[in-house]
Amino acid sequence: MISSGTDLNRFLDALVRGKLLRPAQQRQMMTTRPTGNPDGRAYGLGLGLGLESRPLPHGGLYWGHGGDILGYGTVGGATADGRQATVMVNLNAGGTDAQDADMKAAVQTALCAGRHA
């Protein structure tokens, strides 16, 4: 799939805000289970496989997922109230933990802009 950050933001917004699925499918997709990861991430069940929820520092959570292939990386997220953010890199050194953490932090910072913890 080839897309831009704007494309991913538009898709995640429509997905998270219930514009792509029927209500029952939406509820199923957004039913998650904790991963045991200390960052608070939860992974979707059923139709939600591939969709993660993550807590935001100011409260609430965002939905999204990242992906990479040698040389490229993407992390996107959207909130139920209509905020979206995507970070893309084309110098991905193979998905290092530090780079992944920086990309997720950038998405969280963008989603929290103007909000207070």
UniProtKB/TrEMBL annotation:
It comes from the Bacteria. Signal peptide: none annotated. InterPro entries: Beta-lactam-related, Beta-lactam/transpept-like. Residues 1-106 form the Beta-lactamase-related domain. This is Beta-lactamase-related domain-containing protein. It comes from Streptomyces rapamycinicus.
